Amino acid sequence: MSGERGCLFNSLLFLIIVFVPVVGHIIETFMILEDDHSTAGKLLWLAVIWFIPFLGPFLYLLFGQRRHHVAFGQPSYGTR
User: Fold this and answer.
1) Residue 64: what pLDDT?
2) Can you tell me the distance from the alpha carbon of 5 to that of 11, in angstroms, rounded to the nearest whole number?
């Protein structure tokens, strides 16, 4: 019985350590490709995200996203 419990634990550990970060990297890759950076900027952020596994996505979320702020009461269309 303990062998089955070890297999389940190893499978959950694999999902947490490998699968979840890879899905996060893929989602963040789409975020970068949809953002309005230059081509060189997009490539740089993609390299940072994929080559610095845990710190890279955090850096992009802090510094890399382009935020468009709309003043209160102003229409949001046409800001890009």
Assistant:
1) 85
2) 10
